[in-house]
Amino acid sequence: MHQNERLLQVLDAKTNNYMLPFFWQHGKDEQTLRAYMNAIQSAGCGAVCVEARPHPDFCGPLWWRDMDIILDEAEKRNMKVWILDDDHFPTGHANGALLNAPETLCRQSVYCKPYHFDEEGLLALDAQEIAQLPETPKTPLQMGIESIAPPKHRQFDDDELLGIFAYHAVDCGETIDLLPFMQEGALTWQRPSDEWRVYQIGLSRNYGPHRDYINMMDRDSCKVLIDAVYEPHYARYKAHFGQTIAGFFSDEPELGNGALYDVNSVLGTPQDLPWSRELQAVLTKRLGVDWKRQLVYLWTDWGETAQKAKIRCIYMDSITQLVECNFSMQLGEWCRDRGVEYIGHIVEDNNQHARLGSSLGHYFRALAGQDMAGVDLISQQIMPMCEDDPQINYQHMPRDGEFFHYMLAKLASSYAAIDPLKKGRALCEIFGNYRWSMGVQLGKYLIDHCLVRGINHFTPHAFSPKAYPDGDCPPHFYAGGHNPQYRHFAKLFEYANRVCHLINGGHHIASVAVLYHAEAEWSGGEYMLSQKVARCLTDHQIDFDYIPADVFERREHYKTDLHEGLRINGQYYQAFVLPMSEYIPSCVAKGIAELQQCGFPVFVIDQLPKGICDGDDVLLNTFSECNVIPLHQLVSSLQKLCAMDIAVKPANNRIRCLHYQNPADLYLFINEGNETYEGEIFLQRKGPCVLYNAWENRLEPLQWRETENGIVLSVTIVPLHSLIVVFDVEDCEPICHGKPQTIGSTIISQWQRSVCSSIDYPHFSVAKQVKTPDDFAMEAPDFSGFVRYEAQLMINQKADYELCITDAAEGVELFVNGSSAGMQIAPPFRFDISSFLHQGANHLAIEVATTLERERAANPIDEIDRMMTQQPTSGSGITGDVFLLEKGTA
User: Fold this and answer.
1) Quick count: other Cβ atoms within 10 Å of Cβ 337?
2) What are phi and psi of 752, to 5 degrees?
3) What is the arithmetic mean of pLDDT over 52-71?
4) Dihedral of CA 680/683/686/688: which sign?
């Protein structure tokens, strides 16, 4: 039996670091910067990601002074430093370099302007009307921002008219070029019949909310970012590259067309679309010499469906390949050539990962050059039991809960698994703009949500050295000592770091590969979002990976092998699922044909595709042997044809699981419901095994029994408490006998309560006799800080004792006779206090740290802060009962 080396390292407190929080820079003094580096390291983080938020002198003398200080502290503390690669997010501003750059390097859009005939069917246009650009509708968020800070756009004078074309809306092949009808800048044309439509196609740089940003599809434009930000850092800190400096982080790079954060930035909508000179060359090659006439199908709702699908897919495919090559790969290769790495994420929210505007059109291609697969989890996107509702978030923006809960994190872990460059590393920027109501209990839920879906690196958002309160996207974990839960967040980060160490360096076991829906959406046909399939699988404890069509096209890169099934970069799958797609790429059709030839299970949801979006429809003839099933039959169909790795009895759609091999097996189980789960879990492997308590960093006994095909665990999984089963540990017994049981229980309800703010800790005051449960939030609705409860406990005989607090808000530390018995952040809060007690009188002190929600809600910074602040709902202090439990062997 091989030893579980990773587990032994964790138990010996010898883990690597997987936490790289944002450390915001505003030009603060040296003492503050050094103090914050100490606070960050003390919070269990071995790295920082330095972000100008905003810095008054990015890449100037003050910035270099601050970076010198941070790097000096990092070297002393053996910490790593990542650098967010622009003066402010989203990445692409290039520190303002585009403001005076040649216009050919700036962003460009293609637009479509429809024209209308008079009652007689006559179209008459003058030069001014032709020169007028059509408007792109703005989102409410954009209008709100611009009402506060009107944009100051650079104006360009290189608008270009590509053509004015008349199209027969019934006979879509008939088109008339109207430019020959123009005389002295004006155009007059009489339509032959009512079926004719006229559209103007043109180019302009006077579109988009960020016109002074780089063009993600233009190689020279993207190099402006390298020259403006990357090269100056390399010139000054070359000796630190690959040593203290770990790499660069791109934050939400965008194509930038359309309206700001428009979640529906898809083809077929009234907006400008991304363009570049390189794109024009590609489309000329792929669409032919009359490419200009064909562009209209990127917008229209009429026309031959198959033709539109082809043109739209070619356009999006061309865009995203250019983004991959010119932006993502160029930056990644620059970094790797200099001994550092490139990481970050795009805007994935509400399915934008495969769309235009505020994202980059294709999740996998956008991150192709990065060394980790990243996503971000912000703004209350994921909340307990909120897979479906609310559909509008607290910022009054649309929210697709199903996407956030069933796709977001799995995008990163899937890409980390299938791309050799990523080396199994998946990163999540987490907690940003959850506001002050977010404390360690929600933090634990979110961390576990990510861990069980395979995330193994985190960028907590954020440490801000601005004077408290900083209203910029809280929570802030330290807040200059004002956050009562700073030490509790440190414990959470240490917990996450231990689990991350266990799920790094190996690979997860995923039974199913689910096709990424990008091309299906691009085509404009009917399709099913990939997360619909994912929800079905997740709720039945069947793990999966999202795979892009590129795994079939770029087989050498992805190490795709279809000879005896489906294997991608060493990940072996038992089935392939094609969500309902009216159109699919030819490479997918060919891949399915090969899988069928070797008898590999292929499931097509609801209906077969009707067309190939980039090739000959004859390829669809190979689909004859596919299993076409409705979504609700997928699980049962998989169970008949595939050997399921994990089975839960009784069935429960709130239990989440991760099977990881490194090379020893590890199973992580999370209960995302609101009720404790008790039951049995079948694992398709042999014992022995034990529990690993990642919070306390210790091994614990586990009840299990062997069966013919594996083992069955007897488990209790409490919400907010992970259950980790580990194998290949020496001296673990096959079955644990004599599980400790509660043989006596005493409720403790009389307490002396006192309080203090975080900045005044530990100087408590305002002592008062109270009884628990304590409704302190009602008594002091504006209070945030520490609530301390003290009592005397008489022990008459030596025994094993546990103190249990059924509920509290939120982080709890217990002191027995002046010594800390530990810190817990999730109810029920259980403390083994046997070693702290003595016969006779014992002093108990329970310190409960609240969030800053109530204090901040009562004291908004400004009107914007007031608008963003929700009515407080958190409790304060001990909100449940306190029990002394005597433990014994049943």
Assistant:
1) 8
2) -100, 120
3) 97
4) negative
Q: What is the CA radius of gyration of the chain?
A: 30
SS3 per residue for 190-259: ECCCCCEEEEEEEEECCCCCCCCCECCCCHHHHHHHHHHHHHHHHHHHHHHECCCEEEEEEECCCCCCCC
pTM above 0.90, yes or no: yes
Cβ contacts of 838 within 8 Å, gap of 6 or more: 795, 817
- The alpha helices in 361-430, defined as continuous H runs, are 363-366, 401-403, 409-418
Q: What is the pLDDT of residue 738?
A: 42
Whether the per-residue pLDDT at 405 is higher than 60: the answer is: yes
How many CB atoms lie under 10 A from the CB of residue 705?
12
For residues 406 and 454, is the Cβ–Cβ distance under 8 A?
no
Q: Mind giving me the DSSP string for 263-285? A: TT--TTSSS-EEE-HHHHHHHHH
* Edge-to-edge strand list for the sheet holding 47-52: 22-25, 47-52, 80-84, 245-251, 341-345
- For residues 730 and 616, which has the higher predicted lDDT (pLDDT)? 616
How far is Cα 701 from Cα 691, in angstroms, rounded to an integer? 6
> Quick one: CA dihedral 352, 356, 362, 363, positive or negative?
negative
Instruction: Give the SS3 label for residue 116.
Output: coil
Pairing status of strand 560-561 against strand 877-878: unpaired
**642: three-class secondary structure by DSSP:** coil
Look at residues 425, 390, 417 and name the one whose alpha carbon lies nearest to residue 405.
390
**Paired tokens of 416:** 């980390």
Cα-based angle 827, 832, 834 (whole degrees, multiple of 5): 155
Side-chain half-sphere CA neighbours of 115 within 13 A? 30
Query: How long a stretch of residues is the chain?
Result: 890
Residue found under tokens 């997010």: 89
Instruction: Mean pLDDT check: name the lowest of 192-201, 246-255, 323-332.
Output: 192-201
**CA separation for the pair 97, 215 (Å, rounded):** 12
Nearest by Cα to 84 from 461, 544, 514: 461
Integer Cα distance of 867 and 863 in angstroms: 6
Tokens of 232: 């100056």
Q: Record the tokens describing residue 755, joined without a space.
A: 């309080």
Query: Token pair 């339509």 is at which residue?
Result: 191
Nearest to 25 by CA among 49, 62, 55: 55
User: Measured in whole angstroms, how far is the alpha carbon of residue 683 from the centre of its chain?
Assistant: 29
- Distance linking the first and last C-alpha atoms of the chain: 33
pLDDT tens, residue by residue, 208-228: 999 999 999 999 999 999 999
Lowest mean pLDDT among 144-148, 157-161, 537-541: 144-148
Q: Tokens for 615, please give them.
A: 């090739």
Residues 604, 610, 614, 617, CA torsion sign: positive
HEC readout, 253-264: CCCCCCCCCCCC
What pLDDT is recorded for position 169? 84
The tokens describing 435, both together, are 């506001």
Q: How many CA atoms lie within 13 A of 654 on its CB side?
A: 18
Among left, alpha and beta (phi > 0; psi -120 to 50; other), residue 544 is beta
Measured CA distances, 503 to 418, 665, 754 (Å): 16, 10, 42
Distance separating alpha carbons of residues 605 and 527, to the nearest angstrom: 10
SS3 762: coil
Give CA–CA dist 152/144, Å, rounded: 15
Structure tokens at 800: 């094993």
Non-local CB neighbours of 576 within 8 Å, separated by 6+ positions: 512, 513, 515, 566, 592, 595, 600, 601, 602, 603
Instruction: Provide the token pair at 261.
Output: 């954060």
3-state secondary structure 71-101: HHHHHHHCCEEEEECCCCCCCCCHHHHHHCC
Question: Which has the closest alpha carbon to 477: 851, 763, 81, 812?
Answer: 851
The closest alpha carbon to 548, from 575, 514, 523, 576, belongs to 514
Query: Could you tell me which of 441, 455, 464, 266 has the C-alpha nearest to residue 376?
Result: 455
